[in-house]
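Researcher: Structure for this, please.
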Amino acid sequence: MIYDVRQVTTYDYGSVIPFSRHVAHLTPTDQPGQTVLKASLGIDPAPAERAEATDFFGNRITSFALDHPHDLLVVELRARIQVLAPEPLLPSLTPAFEAVADLALESDDLGPDSPAHYVFPSRKVDLDAAITAWTAKSFPPGQPVLEGASDLMNRIKRDFRYAPGSTDTSTRPDQAFATRRGVCQDFAHVMIAGLRGLGLPARYVSGYLRTNPPPGRPRLEGADATHAWAAVWCGPEVGWVGLDPTNGIPAGEDHIVLALGRDYADVSPLQGIIVASGDHSLEVKVDVIPVQPRAIPPAPADRPGPERAAVEKAVERVPEKATDKAAEKPAKPA
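Model: Predicted structure, token format:
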């Protein structure tokens, strides 16, 4: 499936800002099963400084500074991305979770995909005894790692309430676990904390969901906003597998990866420093629209070949109406 993705992030400040500096994780990159066909990041007002780089985890980062007075900042991503459906996996055939935990601790790989980076506490994810004990119910002795992780995902979907506005980006996993409510970021953090508590490597994935589902399928929670899910390492042969606890499904063709990290702090879409007093408002709008081949008209009898082939190559937007919806507010830039 090919998608056109558009995210518009608008900061409306309560006063005129003389200077600001920002870092954005808002440009997607190629991933296994995902190809970025084109992408652009617009910034208004135009920054005095702008630099593009790649961080340790392979994410694209854009650093920019505004040195003239402004009371509004608009950052707009436009991208076209191809996502392939992942190969089906049988969770019962993955290694036992104890073996995976041992392999992670023995790993001497220091690359960005190494499990060694994802087994310890991180800035937003502490290890919590209550979360670990609750997670352990999905992992009886010898449990195949993906079977246990899938059961944990389904339990979060069943037992937690999706409640936008009940948490923010400063909410810790133990707080969301205690109230059994939150949004996608909270559910991903709880799942990561539980898996790491058992010694299993788990990482945070930020991205998007298809805005309008295919006919006959339910609309997913978190569509029309930035989304987040977890990925668990299932050993060197299987590698990383994405699991979406907000919706209780494996990450698939409806999921578009924006950035990867240990937790939200590694992939915050937009953060920075401003010189200002007073509060600000934030609005995030997201559209994810599938692009499909045009309907192929019957070939004229006297022109059977090339004309039809040309039509088959043409693509256009699916005539769907996507509704913008404000995403959860991140913490105020500090």
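Researcher: Any notable elements?
Model: The helical segments are 97-106, 129-136, 145-159, 173-179, 184-197, 264-267, 306-313. Residues 165 and 282 are 13 Å apart (CA to CA).
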